[in-house]
Amino acid sequence: MVKYVLKRIGYLLLTLFIVASITFFLMKLLPGTPFNNPKIPAAQIAILRKQYGLDLPVWQQYLNYMVGIAHGDFGESYQFAGQTVSYLISTRIGPSLQLGVQAMIIGTLLGILLGAIAAIRKNTWVDATATIFAIIGRSIPNFVFAALLQFWLAYKWRLFPIALWDGFSSSILPTLALAMAPLANTARFMRTEMVDVLSSDYIELAKSKGESQWQVVAKHAMRNSMIPIVTIIGPMAVDLMLGSLVVENVFAIPGIGQQFVQSITTNDYPVIMGLTMLYSVMLTVVILIVDILYGFIDPRIRLSGEGN
Amino acid sequence: MADTKENLQLGPDAFKHVATNTQAQEKIAAPSLTFSQDAIRRLKQNKFALISFWILVIIGIVALLSIWFSPADPNRQHLAYTHLPPKWGNLNIPFINGYRNGIDMYAKNGVPKGTYFFLGTDYLGRDMLSRVLVGTRVSLFIALLATFFDLTIGVFYGIISGWKGGTTDTIMQRIIEIISSVPNLIVVILMLLVFKPGLTSIILAIAMTGWVTMARLVRAETLQLKDQEFVLAARTLGESSTKIAFKHLIPNLSSTIIIQTMFTIPSAIFFEAFLSYIGIGLPAPTASLGTLLSDGQKVLQIYPSELVFPAVVIVVLMLAFNLLADGLRDAFDPRSDNR
Lengths: 308, 339
Description:
The structure holds two protein chains of two kinds.
Chain A: H1 2-29, H2 42-51, H3 58-70, H4 85-120, H5 125-139, H6 142-156, H7 172-198, H8 201-208, H9 213-226, H10 233-250, H11 256-265, H12 269-297, H13 299-307
Chain B: H1 2-8, H2 22-26, H3 35-45, H4 47-65, E1 99-100, E2 103-104, H5 105-108, H6 128-164, H7 166-180, H8 184-194, H9 199-225, H10 229-236, H11 241-277, H12 289-298, H13 305-332
Helix pairs in contact in B: 3-13, 4-6, 4-13, 6-7, 6-9, 6-11, 6-12, 6-13, 8-9, 9-11, 10-11, 11-12, 11-13, 12-13
Organism (chain A): Schleiferilactobacillus harbinensis DSM 16991
Pfam families (chain A): BPD_transp_1, BPD_transp_1_N
Transmembrane segments (chain A): 9-27, 99-120, 132-153, 159-184, 229-251, 271-294
């Protein structure tokens, strides 16, 4: 197990190294410089270039960048002079994390509930309703859903703040908008698993021992159906990260998603590179944790993993 | 024991041959179906999938016909007619009678009698109906072409990786692992920053990132298939790897490929809309569902209809593709049905 984890961490570092290199060279491929305003005199531009280390040869810039990353230094923002990328990210990651965690909790819990109810009442109108609900949740783009929530619940009915980041109440709508995708996926997954589990022998045994349907579901079926849910946490994290890019923009939340979109429109390369790295780190770490966790929960996976 | 045998006194002529019709016993009552016929039969039983299929056909035909029969030029601006509400002839039904907040917007803006905009106009006075039609066509075009590339790359990558095995497979799988550990959209965004935003670069960017899932599925199936007898037989008979891939592997992979393709199309539609929405997709004035949604969201609080129409189209499209994909999966793989 230790060997397996170490091997996985090794791959993780290699992956991140390659991602960092590719991002760096892609950014170097971009035409023009960030300081191409014709009003700035050449001497000024030379000073700016020197200040950001852009006068060095590319391989040296690459080395500096890599050494910087290893120390957690992603350089300075072009747009906000004097602010390091790390500082910029650190001030903005709070709201994003809060929204992501809230959305994941709500999405998973409601999804498990919805999927379980659909499976228990299989092939009835309850099942059909839950399934249609899950498919609609998968089909509405999150930014459309966010805009509609904002229009009806915040603007028309004034139930929630329209936008901005001011306490818990302003996090409700963005959380709902983000939670839609994980909810739909979990519900779908849970229903399939639960239907499988409900037709297994140990459920028959539990029923034959005279346990009520509620006991059977709560004690036996739910627990065993929930194990595989762990595997979709990775894809769910991706959904949430991507969702945050647009949802944070719709609701004007000062998070990293909004910063990323803003940096794209202003060509703030160091910030784009830093955030790309951050997203990749979060994703790879989540996937690693999920894999290790799954090995602990279900020993069969661990054995086959070591066998390879 | 010997007694009983003699007491029986049965000769061969004591038995009479009863005529049997062995052919009748072997007769198969139902018509025999090929795999694809069987799948189509199962698909037809799925009402949602069938309705989705026809909805997609209709949307596709309407979007295609709008090349020749567009109600107006989708890019023609008319600054006097901005933000007009929908009006359907002289029908006096709320929401489609040209009134907003009790005011006849068509009379107020001096629109001549006989000029109607079925879905209203946008912030530059462009006809929304024409823009929604063009937008649907552009979005579908991007999604279908991106899916096609994605399918080609994914299938070839997967087959080569699974068929070759060994070191080739390991290296190819490592590459996939690295690609899939960066969120797709980040790669797409980086690519769009490097190349000029436009139709081609969007299609390429979506195709470059989407093939990973397809490659994984195809590789896993190829690994199973390549040890089966019919492949071994073909190998023994000296068929080349290319021929085996086309003659034996791809036909057996077809259900996986079709299902995965159907799931890729809606996600490509979503990607295009997403990119245009955050402002790095198609440049103005090209209409796509994404740019329409992006324009509509800016004026949502005053003119909600400009967001609602493209939103309805994209939701119906994605819903239909998802339902059809679900139906196809159940049809091709009855085990997944769980019933």
